[in-house]
């Protein structure tokens, strides 16, 4: 399913996306707070192949983000649980030249609209490194509520264990969040 708004298109990932993603995927800024770091084409290919396996198993939906002229990044929902009607939103990396623009907010709006209005999920979970101030502010700006902090939670590519802020967005809050996001996006 292709999701689209304001010249931003989220298109399901395919293996051929490697050619466009590798133009910026190895920028160190993208991986400063990451659990993993992509350093070369082989690692990017493995990342895409892993994403495709998760898509095939129906545990994730992975999109590549485009504008009218180029590939901008990638994002996904994963750990989709039809029994609890929950999923995790994340694995987002956006070309640094588009960071700080409305690209991320529009992408998250499209995904939230899809998961709450089409998939009928009840809750989205977002996990962010506590030290990643920009991503924490971005989660709050789309209406996510901080639920807990898990200390020494996940090992990063640097070998340290990060503290993780766990945010949620619930379906019963979606209509209010939707209005707020549309106001921010359409300014």
Characteristics:
single chain; GNAT_dom; 187 residues; GNAT family N-acetyltransferase; Acyl_CoA_acyltransferase; acyltransferase activity, transferring groups other than amino-acyl groups; 8 strands; 8-stranded mixed β-sheet; alpha+beta
Distance N to C terminus: 26 Å
Oligomer: single chain
**Mean pLDDT, nearest integer?**
96
| CATH superfamily caption | Gcn5-related N-acetyltransferase (GNAT)
Order of SSEs, N→C?
A: EEHHEEEHEHEEH
Q: How would you sum up this structure, described in words?
A:
InterPro entries: Acyl_CoA_acyltransferase (IPR016181), GNAT_dom (IPR000182). This is GNAT family N-acetyltransferase. Pfam families: Acetyltransf_3. Residues 8-145 form the N-acetyltransferase domain. GO terms for molecular function: acyltransferase activity, transferring groups other than amino-acyl groups. This protein has 187 residues and is α+β, with helices and mostly antiparallel strands. It has a single domain (3-185), classed as Gcn5-related N-acetyltransferase (GNAT) (Aminopeptidase), CATH 3.40.630. Helix content is 30%, strand content 34%. The chain is built from five helices and eight strands, in the order ββααβββαβαββα. The chain has an eight-stranded mixed sheet with strand order 1-2-3-4-5-6-8-7, with helices on both faces. A hairpin with a 2-residue loop joins strand 1 and strand 2 (8-12). The radius of gyration is 16 Å and the shape is globular.
């Amino acid at each position: 399913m292709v999701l689209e708004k304001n010249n931003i298109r989220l298109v399901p990932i395919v293996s051929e996306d490697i050619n466009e993603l590798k133009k910026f995927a190895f920028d160190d800024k993208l991986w400063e707070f990451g659990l993993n770091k992509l350093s070369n084409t082989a690692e990017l290919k493995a990342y895409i192949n892993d994403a495709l396996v998760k898509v095939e198993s129906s545990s994730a939906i992975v999109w590549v983000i485009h504008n009218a002229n180029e590939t901008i990044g990638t994002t996904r929902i994963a750990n989709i649980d039809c029994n609890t009607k929950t999923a995790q939103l994340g694995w987002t990396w956006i070309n640094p030249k588009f960071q700080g623009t409305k690209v991320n907010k529009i992408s998250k709006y499209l995904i939230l609209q899809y998961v709450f209005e089409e998939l009928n999920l009840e809750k989205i979970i977002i996990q962010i490194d506590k030290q990643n101030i920009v991503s924490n502010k971005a989660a709050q700006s789309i209406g996510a509520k901080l639920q807990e902090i898990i200390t020494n939670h996940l090992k990063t590519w640097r070998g340290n264990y990060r503290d993780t802020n766990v945010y949620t967005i619930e379906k019963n809050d979606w209509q209010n969040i939707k209005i707020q996001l549309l106001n921010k996006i359409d300014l």
